[in-house]
Amino acid sequence: MSTPRGSVIAVHRSHEHGFSKQTVDEIALLPGLGVDGDAHMGAQVKHRSRVARDPNQPNLRQVHLVASELLDEVNAADFSVAPGDLGENITTSGLDLITLPVGTTLRIGDCLLSLTGLRNPCVQIDAFQEGLQGAMLGRDDDGRLVRKTGVMSVVVHGGTIRPGDAIDVSFPPGDPIAMEKI
Question: Where is coiled-coil annotated (predicted)?
Answer without folding.
Answer: none
